[in-house]
Design a protein that fits this description.
seven-stranded antiparallel beta sheet, alpha+beta, 2 domains, D-amino Acid Aminotransferase, Chain A, domain 1
């Protein structure tokens, strides 16, 4: 395995220097966190599955014209991505009441919302990723009004497409979190979808039984977490070629 320089390590992924200028290698870990990092654990095989699921969804979104940072999958746990300037905002789309919106507003979990709701959270672990309004985002310069217009338009398009895609395999897309970045090409800049889309940042319920098929099983100590992630991949038709055989991570130099 080629030695690569590690640039950043987050809760679920590690970023390494890419083979070409303007690229990075994104490595998916099995580590799991919840409750703003208060709960930590390992979900065996999660990194392998999330790599495949995110690859599949990014490619499908690209087919309908959604620009992303994804280039190609390299192996079981790594993918090549374009280097982008991450906008420090988490964009959350809610279709069905669950999680924090149920607690904040007293809406019973499982209630279908009158329409899809977009929320924004400032990416800051020390502050607990606080919820913010568009006025905060533009006032503090985290994103300009034209950036916000692009992010909202892309978010609505992503939600419409993924809702239908998951429904087609018997899964309800309850809510999800996405991130965007600025991709610079010479003097030109465009907003692209970044990070990942997987059961780590989507709430996915079985359409008939409402059984949870995402990281809520880890958050709430429900058990069968690995099986839930595998079931999502199975329904999408993308279980790894060699089953859940793992691969060693890359060697790194600091």
């Amino acid at each position: 395995m080629a030695r690569r320089r590690q640039l950043y390590e987050g809760k679920a992924k590690i970023l390494f220097e890419g083979p070409e200028p303007g690229t990075l290698v994104q490595y998916f870990k099995d580590d799991a966190t919840a409750l703003n990092g208060e709960k930590k654990g390992i979900i065996t095989g999660k990194g392998v599955l999330n790599n495949r699921i995110s690859e599949y969804l990014m490619l499908r979104l690209a087919e309908i014209g959604v620009p992303t940072h994804f280039v190609r999958r390299l192996n079981m746990r790594e993918q090549l991505i374009r280097e982008v300037e991450i906008i420090p905002i988490e964009v959350v789309v809610r279709n069905v009441a669950a999680g924090s919106i149920s607690k904040r507003l007293g809406i019973a979990e499982g209630t279908r919302l009158p329409r899809s709701i977009i929320e924004y959270y400032y990416k800051n672990d020390a502050l607990g990723d606080p919820m913010v309004a568009e006025e905060h985002i533009t006032a503090f310069g985290w994103a300009a009004p034209p950036d916000m217009d692009d992010m909202v338009a892309l978010t609505l398009r992503i939600n419409d497409f993924l809702t239908g895609l998951f429904l087609g395999v018997g899964i309800t897309l309850v809510d999800f979190k996405i991130e965007f970045g600025r991709l610079w090409e010479n003097e030109d800049m465009r907003i692209v979808l970044a990070d990942e889309i997987s059961p780590d940042n989507c709430r996915l319920w079985d359409s008939k039984t409402n059984e949870k098929m995402d990281k809520d099983r880890f958050r709430r100590d429900m058990g069968r977490v690995e099986e839930a992630y595998q079931e999502v991949a199975k329904r999408l038709g993308i279980l790894p070629e060699a089953g859940m055989r793992d691969m060693k991570g890359p060697e790194t130099i600091q």
